């Protein structure tokens, strides 16, 4: 097995492919991480304060969230990509280990993001769609020699995240699903979408009533998740797998209110888009010939940096740069301009032969590039044009030109750096050595995943007593220790999400209202009159309430804790005086059947509420007064 895996890894390292998809994956992944950090910052009092606004967490948490957001943005933009990837991984690790995110506010995708964050430290994702390309080009280019990062990466860089981040998750998850009755009935997507806590604001009732379609979707998901890891490597299956996966996770986003998980999985599919699709898209969007030719001074370092910057951001390749010393004779529109004037300004010629110079050239460049066209048009406005011209003249008239001497060449003994080669040497030297190390690491990862799947998805589900004897107890302790380590550092963890042991018997949900000055009930902006968790309380806040506070076996201590958090957070946000406000806890009966029932969504939304208790605040302390024994109610 080791030899076969080594050969596969070696072939994956030898075959070079465009870095476009990898760069877009990094960009999208960084944006998903950034939006989640913004979510954490918005709900920082609810998530991190023991009692929101009353018993506050350390202020350093807020600072670390800001630093984490900066790291995620740098990762998305590809600025100091490797350092940003390391910082993002460490922040995700620290927050999921040492804050309530790990248990009370588990977003359902933290381990996915953790594992992919670790992989991004080693993947050369800065080779496409990154500011590092421009930064390194500026740093290492001279007027005689331009430096650019390679635009290709080993194809293994695409397969590793897909296999480890998606394939292992799918395979572990589908094993768990096979033990869930409603998933075996093909109703895996139908049941959560019919329960108020989990449904999105979109009315999907018409779709949920088509029983054959719902069963077909359920069975397709099971088949897809089982086959993904094994069919991923075959070209003929890649596009069908991609289309099914995109549909699956887009469906999660629009039908359930756990959109961060949907987006976190969805962005990985940038790695499955066929390379020819990117090339076709590029040919479609780019003009047959440049819309503008720009002539620049080839002996001017500042001009060189300008050219490199514009070419970097000119994604549609609408501008073509030509050196004056080399190409001025081929531009009839510039024949009447003295050489001294040509070298003193930046000149451009469009397709119609119109000539531009100075600030007008930059404005025309922005218009030709399309997406910054508004900025280019703004530069022509009265007032702004005058300011822009003054700035341009100050820079252009004071720039330094290099003569044709040794100052144009790289410093003696200096070689152009190849970041990928440096990282390759750090990972393991020669191609064979790297393949050997990567294959060994993959064996370790595979063992950790098999231990996780075998322990919880098979033995636990089958009811096998792994502690029946002393040897079994030792193996169980070792297995749990491995799972704890892989869960913490690699994101390898069981994925028994939304199965029968969560939904079966989930027959009561809770909401909270407060009484205004006139004694009228006002719903907190948390759970609405229908029982749906409303925006922005989705993602990990939804998980806190629907998966931890309110379950089929309601624990009074957990309920007391989270009612305290919710009332303190939203009460303070609404400007209520907690000591003078009465919060009423309401209960609604719902149904979570394991087989098909028509009209289930309408039934669950229409059920009436009843008062079951009050939350009373006095001097910063809350007392939960229950009229019914919710623990006994949920046990029934």
UniProtKB/TrEMBL annotation:
Any one GO MF annotation of this record: protein-disulfide reductase activity
Domain of life: Bacteria
Localization annotation: Endomembrane system
Regions crossing the membrane: 21-43, 63-80, 85-102, 108-125, 146-171, 216-234, 246-271
Protein name: Putative membrane protein
HTTM-like domain residues: 14-277
Main location (coarse class): membrane
GO cellular component: endomembrane system
Topology relative to the membrane: Multi-pass membrane protein
This protein's UniProt keywords: Membrane, Transmembrane, Transmembrane helix
